[in-house]
Amino acid sequence: MSSVFIRTLLASLTLFSVLGLPVDLSKISNDTDVRKIESDAGMVTIDPKYNSSMFYWYFSPVNASLEPNDDTPLIMWIQGGPGASGFIGNFFEVGPLNLVDNTTLARRNITWANNYHMIFVDSPVGTGYSYTDSDYGYANDTEVDVTKQLYTFLTKFYDDIKPELKSNPLFLVGESYAGHYIPAFGKYLFEHPIKGTRFGGVAIGDGLTFPAFQVAAKPDVAYYFDLIGPDRLAEARRLGEEGKRLALQGKWVEASQARDKLEALMTDQSGGVNLYDIRSTDDYSWQDERLQYFLNLPQVKETLHVPSSRSYGTVDAVGEHMSADIMKPMVHCLPPLLNANITVMLYEGQMDSKDGLISTEAWIPEMIWDGMDEYAMSSRAVWKGADASNLEEAVYGYERQAGPFSHYSVRNAGHMVPMNQPEAAMNLIDRFINGALLSLNVTQNDSTNSSSSEESSAWLPEYPEETYNYVEWN
């Protein structure tokens, strides 16, 4: 057996569990501003039994005038899908880098990484650069499997990669199907705190959190956006109510199929309008084309410490394994956070017909928490901020707030709010984090965040005990 073959075989079998490998952007960009950005990236072993690893990319604050300290917040951005890569948020929404074409990186002018530490992950495994070598390594649901993977990653990130960030306030932020991931992960993280960490809150943009109520709201959203006419409204409402009924009965796959039929009707009757942003027929396929080309370049994989034998791209198995999870509710995961005064923010673009404002308003009253009556009686306020184009105040949107809960609608934005309205999104995340920091109890992990193992695991489905062995993998 040749030495070349042996080296190739070993490389293909190696589990990449990194200890914070720096990224040298000069290898993939000639842009001086891009080269100055400091970051770490690589693969973190999630489950050695199945050779499962999760890709991450961490950025330190890029604002040269900022001196980060243990109070500088850390944002963990979680994309949707299931199976959407964190590179979408990184390169097209909130990260410090903008992939302007198939091969060119540029510095993003308005980025959340200016003043905050940021982590982007490809979750669950099988998404983007993240991989597993076994069918048993894929996640089948959010509450156990995806949460398990994210918790394992974050524990190793703190212990092995950036232990100096443990005391920095942590915020979970994401969009779309992260409306599943973030409530479940946030609740588990709150009830099973990683020692020495400070959990600040969660923010969800255009999220799928209570699908039964959201699918039932879609027909009227489509009708009043003029995506369907009065001649098809009854059909649309029938599909919406069918999806809701099936979901409330726990018939998850059948409910998802009804939802798919409704959205297909909306797309057909609208002439191919993008349901994520009804102002456009652009289906965002250019994003995937750029990512597929750029991230599969050998020099890019080498720079980001990805095994050369691995390719970027979400495998079909991710969606197949998660098919019964799509219509499950995650709304029950938010009240424990709110009742403990953990900040929760929801925001939606007004032009999103998929998981936008109206469908979110449909489920908020179903969220039973201590301040729900106060929120129900709260008044809507106009939300304004600076307009970079004319240096005057602009109306960004509208807000309602009660206690630790806030809800924003964003004008002139679709599903991907930071891509459509970067100034408004920057203002939004600053408001969210600044408000959370004011109310953050730095001792929560020692007192109010404590609960018995019986209480803290009660929300999880009943599985064998070994299912919950989150952190003892080496």
Automatic annotation (TrEMBL):
Domain of life: Eukaryota
GO molecular function, one term: serine-type carboxypeptidase activity
The protein's name: Carboxypeptidase
InterPro entries according to UniProt: AB_hydrolase_fold, Peptidase_S10, Ser_caboxypep_ser_AS
EC number: 3.4.16.-
Record-stated family: Belongs to the peptidase S10 family.
Signal peptide location: 1-20
Keywords, comma-separated and alphabetical: Carboxypeptidase, Hydrolase, Protease, Signal
A Pfam family it matches: Peptidase_S10
GO biological process, one term: proteolysis
